[in-house]
């Protein structure tokens, strides 16, 4: 088990294909197949299920992939720390969908222009899974939301810097009457992401404390789907004002400000490669959060 073999395994796991992994790595497919077979023999277990046209990870394979990614990330981090003056290598960044869509376009473009030797590996997801991924070392850093009053340090051995302050808007169907009593909100269905989304948790808590019948959650895959469900009158929704501003038909829906929520850049304590420092600087250049904000 060496780093080259782990890289081969990771590529096959991601591509679910020996042929595609071989092309990505610049290796012959037969070499990739041999490497995987040797690794499975060494570990004494099957890492993949073989199907007719593709491979899929076995349960043991999924477990081993977590360790392989952490080992390869540590190897890359070690190389970067030995040459701290020049940003290079791979930087694995996670982000909420909302931040990726409405905030990161300009800083990512500047970073790519200034540091072409850094490969940015971007993933998106709800805050809770991203926090877990940073804590476990599967990614290096992430932009996540914490509920007001939450201490980011309690989420694990993490460091956190506030970058953006978002205003959450309650989105109502176009024909919804003026709302003086939140208990009269209709419909009592909330369009939201899967559990783990901070904004969903805040919306559910707010609706629960305001009274009225229980709220059912309709899980959707994107903010555009959330917006469409609300526009159709089937759901309520809660989303950041910065995302609402991207919607072409936003004026058709009724809105109400709910609360402010901070988006923080988190990383494992002590993680400080040149690439990450450069990325953090680019984010801080466009930050709208200042130290004197309450």
From TrEMBL:
Name listed for the protein in its UniProt record: LysR family transcriptional regulator
Keyword RNA-binding part of the UniProt annotation: no
Q: Record the organism.
A: Pararhodobacter marinus
Q: Which Pfam families has this protein been placed in? A: HTH_1, LysR_substrate
Q: What are the entry keywords?
A: DNA-binding, Transcription, Transcription regulation
What PROSITE patterns does this protein map onto?
HTH_LYSR (PS50931)
GO MF terms, alphabetically ordered: DNA-binding transcription factor activity; transcription cis-regulatory region binding
Domain HTH lysR-type, chain residue ranges per copy: 1-58
Per its UniProt record, what PANTHER family does this chain match? Answer: HTH-TYPE TRANSCRIPTIONAL REGULATOR, HTH-TYPE TRANSCRIPTIONAL REGULATOR GLTR
Q: Which InterPro entries does the annotation name?
A: LysR_HTH_N (IPR000847), LysR_subst-bd (IPR005119), WH-like_DNA-bd_sf (IPR036388), WH_DNA-bd_sf (IPR036390)
Tell me the superkingdom of the source: Bacteria
Protein family per UniProt: Belongs to the LysR transcriptional regulatory family.
């Amino acid at each position: 088990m060496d780093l080259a073999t782990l890289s081969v395994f990771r590529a096959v796991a991601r591509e679910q294909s020996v042929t595609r992994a071989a092309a990505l790595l610049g290796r012959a497919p037969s070499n990739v197949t041999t490497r995987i077979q040797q690794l499975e023999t060494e570990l004494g277990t099957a890492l993949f299920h073989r199907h007719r046209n593709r491979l899929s990870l076995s349960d043991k394979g999924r477990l081993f992939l977590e360790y392989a990614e952490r080992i390869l990330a540590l190897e890359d981090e070690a190389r970067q720390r030995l040459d701290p003056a020049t940003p290079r290598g791979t930087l694995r960044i996670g982000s909420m969908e909302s931040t990726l869509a409405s905030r990161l376009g300009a800083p990512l473009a500047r970073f790519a222009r200034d540091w072409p030797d850094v490969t940015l590996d971007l993933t998106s997801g709800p805050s809770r899974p991203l926090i877990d991924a940073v804590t476990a070392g599967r990614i290096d850093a992430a932009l996540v939301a914490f509920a007001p009053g939450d201490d980011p340090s309690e989420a694990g051995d993490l460091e956190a810097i506030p970058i953006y302050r978002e205003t959450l808007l309650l989105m109502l169907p176009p024909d919804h009457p003026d709302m003086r009593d939140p208990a009269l909100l209709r419909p009592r269905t909330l369009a939201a992401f899967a559990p783990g989304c901070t904004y969903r948790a805040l919306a559910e808590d707010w609706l629960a404390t305001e009274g009225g019948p229980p709220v059912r959650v309709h899980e959707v895959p994107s903010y555009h789907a959330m917006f469409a469900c609300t526009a159709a009158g089937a759901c309520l929704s809660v989303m950041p004002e910065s995302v609402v501003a991207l919607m072409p038909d936003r004026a058709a829906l009724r809105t109400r400000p709910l609360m402010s929520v901070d988006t923080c850049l988190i990383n494992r304590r002590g993680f400080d490669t040149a690439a990450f420092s450069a990325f953090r600087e680019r984010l801080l250049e466009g930050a709208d959060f200042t130290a004197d904000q309450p």
